[in-house]
Amino acid sequence: MPEKQNSSDELGKKIISWSIPEYDKHEREKNWYIISAIVGLLFIIYSFFSGNFLFAALIIIGALVIIIHDGQEPMAVDFIITDQGLIVGKKFYDYDVIKDFSIVYKPNQNIKNLYFEFKNVIKPRLSIPLKSMNPLPIRENLLKYLPEDLERTDQPLSEALAKMFKL
């Protein structure tokens, strides 16, 4: 089983660890909410004219999720690199299920992330913020267990768009 729940099982010797937020929290201005409300309203009007009521329901549910989610602060989750795999919160990822890793470190653009690609193409990439961590010892230790993807020099388009639109 590639993904295990962190329990009293032996998950390996801890090499490096730090705390990361559960998700990225974006600071949104009042204008963001106004523009989002207008776009959402236009989509709802379009869905009623086209008779697609399911689309309207999805827009309303999405808006409610954003509103509820925006009022909460992300929890701090421990990220641990061990000699057996990765621990993210309560989940364990064995090195056998990970294809490779890459580090995108551009402090002047506020991009400092560690990425893990899984062998299973259905599983999404794992993006870990480096925060104030030095990427060199992390890279040195991960190279003992995983190959590095040197072709990734920028953050993925999905993350850049999420950052730009503050999603």
Mean pLDDT: 89
Beta-sheet strand percentage? 25-35%
Strand sequence of the main sheet, in spatial order?
1-5-4-3-2
Q: What's the count of strands?
A: 8
Helix content: 25-40%
Question: Can you tell me the CATH architecture of the largest domain?
Answer: Roll
| Helix and strand pattern | EEHHEEEEEEHH
Structural category: alpha+beta
* Tally of individual domains: 2
Poorly predicted sequence stretches spanning 5 or more consecutive residues: 5-9
What is the overall silhouette? Answer: elongated
Total of helices: 4
Describe this structure in words.
α1 packs antiparallel against α2. The chain is elongated. The strands form 2 sheets. The protein has a 5-stranded antiparallel β-sheet, with helices on one face. By secondary structure, the chain is an alpha+beta fold. It has 4 helices and 8 strands, in the order ββααββββββαα.
List the helices and strands and how they pair.
Blueprint: E1 3-5, E2 14-21, H1 30-50, H2 53-70, E3 76-82, E4 85-88, E5 91-94, E6 98-106, E7 111-118, E8 126-129, H3 135-142, H4 157-165
Antiparallel strand pairs: 1-5, 2-3, 3-4, 4-5, 6-7, 7-8
Question: What descriptive keywords fit this protein?
Answer:
2 domains, alpha+beta, 34% helix, 28% strand, 8 strands, 5-stranded antiparallel beta sheet, PH-domain like
